[in-house]
Amino acid sequence: MSVMTEARTTPNTSAGRRGSLYDVLELVLDRGLVIDVFVRVSLVGIELLTIDARIVVASVDTYLRFAEACNRLDLTNNGNATTLPELVGDVTEKGAHGKSKGALAGAVEAIGDTIRPSRDSGDDDKPRSTRSRRKEPAE
Amino acid sequence: MSTYVYGLTRSAHPLKLDGAAGVGADPAPLRAVRADGVAAVVSDAPEGLRAKRRDLEAHEAVLEALMADGTVLPMRFGTLSPDDATLERELNAHSGTYAELLSGLDGRAEYNIKAAHHEDAVLREILRHDTALREANEALRAADGGTARERMDFGERVAVALEGHRERDAARLLALLRPHSVAERPGPPVDGAFLNVSLLVEDAQAGELAELVETLRGEIGWLMELNLYGPLPPYSFVDAAPGT
């Protein structure tokens, strides 16, 4: 899917990725104008692509996986090593300009704030990014 | 034969319908059903049409082509009218509502933003800032992983802390993104993302938004993946339709 349309005068989103349709599939499937008197084609098969995100995965596996992931983390190696003050300085210098500047610094600063405990998160078994799946039927 | 509806535009829209292919294995030509001030872009729906990936792509491509030349109200994927006459009646009956929806979207497009933590990075952040969890982690490590029960309890505490990070980072990102938009709507939950939000953005604001996302990606890319998609047809900002 080409997310950008040539004739449009909008500046191209350099930050935007020419994603596959999969990246915005949930919008095409769940959003858009609905007119009650009309029907909808069968989505059998298509729904399989998105149902994934709507299943709450049993959490025991998740907990064990987190525990194992934490166990193997090397906390002495800061890897990305940018410390918080540096980060804030960088951002303000490089300039997210204008009105976003202060807020941006604020947000970056906030990363690493004390953690506010909250309700639990769901999870699954994919390795790289954190997962939260909540049961929420399509509207 | 039923009529597949892609989207609505003003009657004055140029409606260049030659290039794009519609839904179905052997797509019927696109055409317009015109009514009082409003036009619907449609094609004949093949008998027994069942949605396939190809059809989703066709739906999206038709809308994007229309967006290039004017404002469009994207229909939800898969919308079928029993026939053209029914569609025309519907357009005439609610033409005022559709005109109003169209006006609200002039010069604006939807941008979707998704953010997901890199797991190791966010877990490291959690442990770095929570002494009790860090100590518990050390104790388990010293005990060669501990018992299954201990690991589970510890993992649950990590999960709770993680949810806190997710909520907080989502709120912070939104606070940064929001000023570059005129409206927002949370997207449906998607696998992995702690933030899925659609913004309605003025064409003139789109550059700022892209720049902001780029800057953020540079600064906090080590912690999360941040993606911006758009301009998209305004799927998330058309739900004030009659009877919905």
UniProtKB/TrEMBL annotation, chain B:
It comes from the Bacteria. The keyword Transmembrane does not apply. Keywords: Gas vesicle. GO terms for biological process: gas vesicle organization. It is found in: Gas vesicle. One of its GO terms (cellular component) is gas vesicle. Pfam families: GvpL_GvpF. InterPro entries: GvpL/GvpF (IPR009430). Its main location: other. Belongs to the gas vesicle GvpF/GvpL family. This is Gas vesicle protein.
